[in-house]
Specification:
Keywords: Hydrolase. One of its GO terms (molecular function) is sialate O-acetylesterase activity. It holds the Pfam family SASA. This is Sialate O-acetylesterase. This protein is an alpha+beta fold and about 650 residues long. Among the domains are: about 1-35; about 265-405, Jelly Rolls (Sandwich); about 560-650, no CATH class. The protein has 12 helices and 35 strands. The strands form 8 sheets. Strands 1, 3, 4, 6, 7, 8, 9, 10, 23, 24 and 25 form an 11-stranded mixed beta sheet that branches. A 6-stranded antiparallel beta sheet has the order 11-22-12-18-15-16, with no helix packed on it. The termini are far apart. The relative contact order is 0.11.
Amino acid sequence: MDILMSKLKIIYKFFLMFYMLLLAGLSVNAQSGYAQITLPKVFGDNMVLQRGIAIPVWGKATPGSLIVAMLGKETIKAKTDKEGKWMLHFTKFKAGGPYDLKIFESGKPESAIKLKGILIGDVWLASGQSNMELQVQQARDAPNEIGKADFPQIRFLIVEHDIKLTPQSDFLAGKWKLCDTNNVKQFSAVAYYFARKIHTEQNVPIGIIQSTWGGTPVQTWTSREMLLTSTATRAKILANDTLSQNNVVKDSLNMVHFWDIVYHPQGSSDKIVPLPEYDDSGWTAVEMPHMVKDFGIGKYEGMMWLRKKVVLPPSFAGKQLVLNIGRPEMNYSLYFNGAEICKTIWNSNPKQFYTIPASLVKNGENTICIRVAMLWGGGGFNPPAENIYITDDVAKVSLAGKWLYKKDVEPAFPQIRNYQNYSALLFNGMINPLIPFGVKGVIWYQGEANDTEAYRYRELFPMLINDWRQRWHLGNLPFLYVQLANFKKVDPLPSESEWAELREAQTLTLSQPNTGMACIIDVGDANSIHPLNKQEVGRRLALIADKKVYNKNVIASGPMYKSYVIKGKDISITFTDTGAGLATRDTASLKGFAIAGDDKKFYWASARIEGDKVIVSSDKVAVPVAVRYAWADNPVCNLVNKEGLPAVPFRTDEWKGITQK
């Protein structure tokens, strides 16, 4: 027993000594960690710093210490405050580089941070929702564009998605990357094409800080303090006070589960449901092509399976075939006789044509199966019917007509609160950490998520612009933005439109100083909220930058409504920004004008160009009082200036809109 007790004492002393050493080590590490100089992630190797301004650099270090920073040949010093925070400003630099940035505590060279490959040029903040976030690899002509993307003086910093209840001093993740054929794939297509044009014309390095999140409203990008100043937003921002970070974490976990269901068929359904012998006798018949909202099942979100048995002609047997699936929802898988042919995901650029190997093709009846994610009220096959067929390049068999569908084959999606849409939460996590990094200006593409409150957007959008300008302390920082494209079905008659009212709110925001708007009413897609021609969007944004920021003598906008005069049955519309003159894009006759009398009933109008004016009339309106142009979700319109830029949609009346409450 004595021997045992003696051994236990030795073991106890050993562990006591180990514990004390561990505490001492932790203490040293804590002290050294506290003393270590830290920089927010917006600073990094290969970054671009803004030319022509006092360049701000900030971070943390030991309280009361003297910080020494060296950029090129310039040395600046600053003292940390009682919390260890410090900020300094280098003098104005001209475009150039590369430079190194070295920062250390005076007398402690071992504390030095050294960043390499830094260029001085113009930095633009690119923000907004999915049309700004859409990647180069998802946009038009992606393989060709990626293959020639060798611009080492264009750099991107993509801020990772993050939701925070309070303003953060640093963002979650992200680092500066050079623009090459590998990195460019993930860059914002709009921002890249904007940057490429500015860089090649101005011959200066361009940095893009990309902070975007698809499907988000303008309120989430605006600070709590600014939102509290308006009765229109005060209640919702105060409602955030009931949230905790646990809510956000739980929602994030549900989101992971959500996408796991989308990308990974549950219960081995992909091994069972696509088989030709699968029993689908209890499934519901539907005519395709169709959108799910037209199925008569209401708004549905979840995984849906569709099947069709098609009898192929004997000439198809044993041949390699091509199947055109049209335009389904983005996330889908296609199966032929039980074999997976394709699987698309959110960040891919899905094709419409797929090769069916000859080994899968049977004589007579064959089974086509599609697993598709029905998201955000969308889903289904976009018409026309002639776009879905199977062919051997000689004969063609239509796949339009009767299909079978079932919507409960797999588990339901978990409930998601989408806290990224809550007021100020993306500002807190993805904008505040960037302030006050030196920038040349902002490019913005957003508005789709605010279409139901388009009238309020007249206030909401300028609030964001003023909020960011006040916080950056760079005066009336250039703020360039994209107006909503044409989208949805074409209305045969003049009608009211949420999207038209949102575009009007965007146009009215031009009353804010140093703003510019790229009109893209001619490059949209009726069947996709994400039109793929981002080259033209980036070019038009860059044209505005050329004129407003770089002082080039260019035509940067299409015709803008100025005034009108009523002369009998005619209304004469005057425009600015006519460039070399008014013209039509594709035909001798003008389209897109509607006219109304006191009864507020609009009719399609005849219109003709006379100098810088358009004369509008209709035999159905004897005493006209108002004109509208391109006033629809997806207007058929063709007025341009001779430089090819489209006329901005407008109305002359101020009658109450459908989003005005």
